[in-house]
C-alpha cells in the first residue's frame, strides 16, 4: 500500500492507495480541487462544507450520466454483435443446406 500527502481546502491529508495508483489519486485530488475552486469563485458566500457537498454532487451526477451513456453504448454493441451472429448463422445454414 502506498501513501501520498494531499491538500483539500488547505487541509492536509495522508491517503493510502494501491501501489502504482499514486498519480491517478493525485490527479483526482487536483480535479476535485479545481472543481472546488470553480464553485467557490461562483458562489463566494458558501461555507467549505457546502462547496465540498456541491462538488461531490456534481461528480456523482457526471458519473451517473457517464454510466447511463456507457450502458446505452454496450446495449447498442450487443445488438450489433447479435445481428452479425444471426447473419453468420444464416449464411452457415444456407451453406450447409447446399452441401
TrEMBL record:
The keyword Transit peptide does not apply. Its main location: cytoplasm. Keywords: Cell cycle, Cell division, Coiled coil, Cytoplasm, Septation. Transmembrane segments: none annotated. It holds the Pfam family ZapA. It is found in: Cytoplasm. InterPro entries: Cell_div_ZapA-like, Cell_div_ZapA-like_sf, Cell_div_ZapA_N. One of its GO terms (biological process) is division septum assembly. GO terms for cellular component: cell division site; cell septum; cytosol. Activator of cell division through the inhibition of FtsZ GTPase activity, therefore promoting FtsZ assembly into bundles of protofilaments necessary for the formation of the division Z ring. It is recruited early at mid-cell but it is not essential for cell division. Belongs to the ZapA family. Type 1 subfamily. Homodimer. Interacts with FtsZ. This is Cell division protein ZapA. It comes from Psychromonas ingrahamii (strain DSM 17664 / CCUG 51855 / 37).
Amino acid at each position: 500500500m502506498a501513501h501520498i500527502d494531499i491538500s483539500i481546502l488547505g487541509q492536509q491529508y495522508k491517503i493510502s492507495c494501491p501501489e502504482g495508483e499514486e498519480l491517478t489519486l493525485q490527479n483526482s485530488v487536483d480535479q476535485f480541487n479545481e472543481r472546488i475552486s470553480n464553485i467557490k469563485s461562483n458562489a463566494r458566500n458558501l461555507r467549505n462544507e457546502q462547496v465540498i457537498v456541491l462538488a461531490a454532487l456534481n461528480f456523482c451526477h457526471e458519473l451517473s450520466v457517464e454510466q447511463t451513456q456507457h450502458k446505452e453504448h454496450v446495449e447498442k454493441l450487443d445488438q450489433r454483435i447479435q445481428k452479425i451472429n444471426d447473419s453468420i448463422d444464416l449464411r452457415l445454414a444456407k451453406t450447409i443446406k447446399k452441401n
